[in-house]
C-alpha cells in the first residue's frame, strides 16, 4: 500500500510517499480502507519534532491521526461494527491507503467521507478546551484564531450551550465567523481595544499560537481563565497548555449527535491527494484556514 512517511524530523520536504506493509487490526481496533484523512496542526508539529508528550514518535513514522473510510478488518473483542461499515475516527498513520483506528463511530447519514475525516481530533479538542477553561452558559468566551477547524467547532458547540463567543480572524473570515454565531473582530493592531468594546470576557482560548497570551490574560484578568493549544510557551505566563486528548469515543459520539441535530458543520476548505502531503502541511502551517483541510485517498 501507499503511505506518507518521514525518516527524520524537519520541514515538509521530509515527507515521502512510500510503499509500506499493510497494518492489521489488533484487539479493540478496526482497520479501514481509508477514503480521507484529516490534516491537523499536530501532524506538522510531530513532523517537526516538537515535544508533544501525548504523541511519542519512533522514526521512521507515518503521519496523521484522523480518517474516514470503510471497515475491512475487525480486531479481537470488537463488537457493534463489521466489514463494510462506513466510519470515521482516530488512529495512527492515517495518510495511507489502509489505517488502524483505535476509536471510531459510524458516519451519520448525509456526511461524506471528505467531511467526516475533518471531525475527530477537532471536535475532541474543542470539547476539551471548552471544558477546561470552565466557561458556562450566559458567559462570554474569546477565541483567538477562530476560523480554523477547532475554532469552527468551538463556536458552534458554544452556541449550542448558550455561550456567547467573540472570535478573532482575518478580514476575509468575518462573515464566516458571523455565520457560525460568533461576534467577529479582526486581529492586528488595536485588536485588544476592539474586543474590549464588545464587552466583558469571562474566558479565552488561544487556538493559533500567534503570541497573544499576555493580551488574553489581560482581557480575562486571570491566567487560569485562558487555555492554549498552540503556544508551547504559555505555561511561562501561568496559562495552561492543553495537548493531551480526553475520551475520543465520547467526543465522537457527541460529534455525531451535534451533526445529526444540524448543530455542527465544518466545511472542507481544500483537499489534497497523498502525493501532495507536503503542500497540505505548508498550507496548514500558514494558517488563515476557513474550516478544514483533508487528504483524499480512496473513492467510494
TrEMBL record:
Primary residence: cytoplasm
Domain annotation Enoyl reductase (ER): ranges: 10-295
Keywords, ordered alphabetically: Cytoplasm, NADP, RNA-binding
Record keyword NADP present: yes
Pfam families on file: ADH_N, ADH_zinc_N_2
Subcellular location: Cytoplasm
Subunit field text: Homotetramer.
Protein name, entry field: NADPH:quinone reductase-like Zn-dependent oxidoreductase
Protein's organism: Streptomyces iranensis
